[in-house]
Design a protein that fits this description.
By secondary structure, this protein is an alpha+beta fold. About 70% of the residues lie in helices and about 10% in strands. It is built from 11 helices and 9 strands. Strands 6, 7, 8 and 9 form a 4-stranded antiparallel sheet that branches. Strands 3-2-5 form a 3-stranded antiparallel sheet, with helices on one face.
């Protein structure tokens, strides 16, 4: 009975434990962990107003039936953008090959957009979508900048690209990681020309700096040479002065030693003689001679001793006099040496100052010379540029005039060609048309030739020999009228026959008779 009760008690427990274990296994199978290089997207019923739930790192329990999950890779994508013939602000087409690195953003709002836009797409499809967006925004960025801004300030150019491209990429859940512009070129070589101009300016500035440094070096070298010469002169003067002082001191010391030696010798001689005299006196005293001989001997020796003392004193006095004379000579030579040394020092200082002033003048003259050369070069360059400008202006003026004449001649040629075509290729007919157009001008010129003549005031001087052909006035008028070529003659010269309503050419005799009648 107890065993049956235990069995009945154990069975529910085992069942409950198995149920709990099954639930744990089920939950473990539905728990999704998110790696660090991916985004876990849980979609389905995830919340009110939410299309998906995105997490980066950690894990999440995905409920069956109502939820499912997928992963978005965070691996960056490298997209090559070979942008060609992009139009800049200056209407110059340039090539901007570049490389963009993009990836899925981990910002919460952008992750949700990525889950809505690119979840389930292949990597190539995402790259193609991003490539189209980048192409359009990159062209827009290039169009808003000049060549100088693009080429010189790359940081600003990249910032403009990032400012235009990144918001558009965020709309599909991507963000811009890096932009790398490889090389910017243009077909018109405008960028190369800018580089050549900058290189030329840098070379010119370098030449100016080199010339300036050479000038500074020349000035410093001259100053250093001047300082060197002054120092060398001062050192030579100091060496000569020291040498003279040392020689004077040497002579003084030698004279002093010689004087002391002479005095010592004199004292030794005197001491010797005194000792000898005393010994002799003692020997005489010791002898048993007569008192008189002893006294005479003693007195004589004393006299000799006194004489020796006097001689010794005389020698000492002579030695002291010689010493004083030598001291005076030494002092005189020392003073002379000092004066000579001072004179040499002053001479060296004078020469050094003279060299310094000469170096200063040379430097000033050299600077003035360089200023004159620079001014002359500047004036010559100005004259060359003005002459070049005038020559260019004259050339352009003549070129414009030549182009105008060429245009006029081309227009006339085109008109003549069309006139000949309208006359069905008959050049004579075309010439007749042109001559007819000019007849009015020709007649006007003929009228102008005689319009200001006052016939009533013409006086003709004649000898009276008219030959019976009329008076002088009529002949004058006839001859004057003959000088004006008739209109028909002018037309005939050009090979044109005028119509009859413009008049006919009559005989010369008839014309002469009419003129005579007019004269009468």
């Amino acid at each position: 009975m107890v065993e049956g009760s235990a069995t009945l008690w154990i069975l529910p427990v085992v069942t409950f434990v198995g149920f709990i274990f099954a639930i744990l296994i089920f939950l473990a199978s539905r728990y999704r962990r998110c790696p660090s290089d991916k985004i876990l997207v849980v979609f389905g019923k995830v919340g009110v107003g939410q299309s998906a739930k995105c997490i980066h790192g950690g894990g999440l329990l995905v409920w069956p039936l109502i939820q499912d999950c997928a992963y978005l890779s965070l691996t960056p994508m490298t997209i090559n953008i070979p942008l060609q013939n992009a139009l800049s602000m200056q209407n110059i087409r340039i090539n901007v090959p570049s490389t963009f690195t993009v990836g899925i953003s981990t910002e919460p709002s952008t992750m949700t957009v990525a889950a809505e836009r690119v979840l389930g797409l292949q990597r190539a499809q995402i790259e193609e979508m991003a490539k189209e967006i980048i192409f359009g925004q990159l062209r827009l960025t290039v169009a808003s900048l000049t060549i100088e801004q693009i080429n010189q300030d790359r940081e600003k150019f990249l910032e403009s690209i990032r400012r235009n491209v990144e918001p558009e990429l965020n709309k599909i859940g991507l963000y811009l990681i890096n932009v790398n512009i490889t090389d910017i070129t243009d077909e018109s070589n405008y960028i190369e020309s800018i580089g050549k101009k900058a290189a030329a300016e840098a070379i010119n500035l370098a030449k100016i700096d080199v010339a300036e440094q050479v000038k500074i070096g020349a000035i410093g070298s001259a100053a250093a040479m001047r300082e060197q010469e002054i120092k060398v002169a001062e050192n030579h003067a100091a060496a000569a002065k020291g040498k003279k002082i040392a020689e004077a001191d040497q002579r003084i010391i030698v004279q002093q030693q010689e004087t002391m030696a002479a005095v010592g010798e004199a004292e030794a001689t005197r001491e010797k003689e005194i000792r000898v005299a005393e010994n002799l006196a003692e020997a005489v005293k010791g002898k048993k001679k007569a008192e008189a001989e002893q006294r005479v001997f003693v007195q004589s020796k004393e006299a000799e001793a006194i004489d020796g003392e006097n001689k010794a004193k005389a020698l000492i006095a002579d030695a002291e006099a010689v010493l004083k004379v030598k001291q005076a000579e030494a002092s005189q030579r020392s003073e002379v040496a000092q004066r000579e040394a001072q004179a040499k020092i002053q001479k060296a200082q004078y020469l050094a100052e003279q060299e310094r002033l000469r170096a200063v003048e040379v430097v000033k003259e050299e600077i003035q010379k360089q200023k004159i050369e620079i001014a002359a070069e500047a004036e010559a360059e100005k004259v060359r540029r003005e002459a070049k400008g005038k020559a260019d202006a004259v050339f352009l003026e003549y070129q414009a005039e030549a182009e105008g004449i060429k245009k006029v001649l081309e227009s006339k040629a085109e008109g003549y060609r069309r006139l000949v075509e309208s006359c069905e290729g008959d050049a004579r007919a075309a010439a007749t048309f042109l001559l007819v157009e000019k007849l009015e001008d020709i007649v006007a010129q003929q009228v102008k030739a005689v319009q200001n003549l006052k016939i009533d005031k013409i006086t003709v001087w004649d000898s009276g020999n008219n030959g019976g052909d009329g008076n002088s006035t009529s002949n004058f008028l006839s001859n004057m009228i003959k000088t004006i070529p008739p209109l028909q003659d002018i037309a005939a010269m050009a090979g044109v026959e005028l119509p009859e309503f413009l008049g006919k050419i009559i005989d010369q005799k008839q014309t002469k008779v009419e003129v005579e009648r007019v004269g009468e």
